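dumping this here before i forget
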Amino acid sequence: MKDSAAKNTSKKDDSSIYLGYTADTSHLEEENRLLKQTITQMKEELDRFRRVPMLVAEVKEIIGPNAVIKLPNGNAFMVEISAGCEELKAGDHVLVEQKNLAVVKKLPLQKQFSVEKFVIMEKPKNTWEDVGGLDNQKREIQEVVELPLTKPQLFKKLGIDPPKAVLLYGPPGTGKTLLAKAVANSTNSTFIEIVGSELVQKFIGEGAKLVKEIFQLARDKAPSIIFIDELDAIASRRIEMGTSGEREVQRTFMQLLAEIDGFKPLGNVKIIGCTNRRDILDPAIMRPGRFDRQIFVPIPNREGRLSIFRIHTKGMSIEKNVDLTRLIDEMDEFSGADIKSVCTEAGYFAIRANRTKVSQRDFIDAISKLRANEEEESSDFMDMFV
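structure:
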């Protein structure tokens, strides 16, 4: 009996040892499988890194089983189209091999430029209440931009076509951009804001294509307003002789002229140009039919300075004994941007003194500081010519 019991006990011990060994083996096998899978993934990743990158090209023409493609550097080639490639047409963008430039795949992109980055989908928050001292300018831009977009029936009854574009010109900091944003807010239009220098591209024809796509985007999202800041960057007076870069700027400028009064109607698309140098603009863009309305935005007068000052100080904590009359007289020949800078600097003077309200002395010190900076900049500018 004792021998049989001992045998049974030894069998149980062997069984438990076997089960434990099996469990350890399965754990190791699972870990080994995960390691092999990781190694395989890493090898695939390395293979992808070793692959030669493909080029992006534009299809210019389809000729039977071949295609004429244009590379970003401007060179054109006739190449073969792979059997598995989708149906192509002129204007498509494709991936091509680096060695033989064979077309491998069609890209879903139909535009070479991402013009959507210029679009502000949400209308600007600036309203007419934020514009001070420019009553005549507000009325004129409302007649050219706001009325045709909000009440087009008035122009149909009169039998006249509203102007296509308006030019805002004047010294820096007088509120030209603010006027454009306020009218975009009042018309609930798509606001496309671009800078003239952004239209100047490196390769031949790219700037003109960008202008074309911006205007097409404006038509698709009409009613819309195209605001071109620093218009003189591309619309300066043309000269007969120049570098290749200047000739490319002129090509972009001619495309802009063609889009303004070309064959495709602008419809509910209005153009607002902005510049500080009206004197250097090309006469072609100033003629009637293009920038019909030209609005001068001057340095504000005394009433304008008071209106602008009240706009910028309506949210500030100011002492009751502040003499507005004296402050307005002290800010003679200040632009709207200068007045805003004075309010900001006065707030800093109050913060340095650990006060929660801005005093008369803070505004006076801020005006003196701004004038001193302007005199120093003017002196440095004159020293350049001595």
